[in-house]
Amino acid sequence: KQEVTQIPAALSVPEGENLVLNCSFTDSAIYNLQWFRQDPGKGLTSLLLIQSSQREQTSGRLNASLDKSSGRSTLYIAASQPGDSATYLCAVMDSNYQLIWGAGTKLIIKP
Amino acid sequence: DGGITQSPKYLFRKEGQNVTLSCEQNLNHDAMYWYRQDPGQGLRLIYYSQIVNDFQKGDIAEGYSVSREKKESFPLTVTSAQKNPTAFYLCASSIVWTGDNQPQHFGDGTRLSIL
């Protein structure tokens, strides 16, 4: 059974720092891996989607990588800003086309 | 603007009562989903619908029911059989069920609490 883990559960860094969020999964048979952002009391916003055949995707200050063989993905945020404060969730699409979710990393950027 | 609208934002349920959460999308998406989010846990799939007039149980369907009579609408009923309904409920949609490597789009959620 696919399991997705995000460590750490929470992270606090000063503004301007570059940072990395981690996501690991147990079964490499995935269609894609997706990163989402969730603001408090809100729904999810899609950030990046990496297809199983891809190694990375970039959008602005965000870069996500995928290593299927090791079951790992990272989300790199460059030059962090207070507005980046949110919970970041990763999810993998399994062989049944269902998204399996991690519990998220709560990120706080200190001004 | 296209998007997903969930209502109400907050909902309170009395013991023994059924309540219905609304989800409407104007994205012309075929597939729709209901998730439950609890603190410290990943989202869990309650029900999904690949196309109008069809729906399937997800991992935690017990105590919930849905209908999909229109492409735009996918309401979720939390029945009295759901003994622990307090949670944040999220509705999502995607172009097609297989995802076609397109992300799911989410509404802003409904927070359900027990009176």
Explain this structure:
- The complex is a heterodimer of chains A (111) and B (115).
- Chain A has 111 residues and is mainly β.
- Chain A has strands spanning 4-7, 10-14, 19-25, 32-38, 44-51, 56-59, 62-67, 72-77, 86-93, 99-101, 105-110.
- In chain A, the strands form two sheets. In chain A, strands 2, 4, 5, 9, 10 and 11 form a six-stranded mixed sheet that branches. In chain A, strands 1-3-8-7-6 form a five-stranded antiparallel sheet, with no helix packed on it.
- By secondary structure, chain B is an all-beta fold.
- Chain B has strands at 4-7, 10-13, 19-25, 31-37, 44-49, 56-57, 64-66, 76-78, 87-94, 105-106, 110-114.
- In chain B, the strands form two sheets. In chain B, strands 2, 4, 5, 6, 9, 10 and 11 form a seven-stranded mixed sheet that branches.
- In chain B, strand 5 (44-49) and strand 6 (56-57) form a beta hairpin.
- The radius of gyration of chain B is 13 Å and the shape is globular.
- Chain A binds chain B through residues 4, 9, 31-32, 34, 36, 41-46, 49, 51, 89, 91, 93, 97-104, and chain B through 4, 6, 40-45, 48, 58, 90, 92, 97-99, 101-109, 111.
In short:
The complex is a heterodimer of chains A (111) and B (115). Chain A is an all-beta fold.
Number of helices of chain B: 0
Provide the gyration radius of chain A in Å: 13 Å
Shape verdict of chain A: globular
Order of helices and strands of chain A: EEEEEEEEEEE
Question: What Rg of chain B do the Cα atoms give?
Answer: 13 Å
How is the main sheet of chain A built? 6 strands, mixed
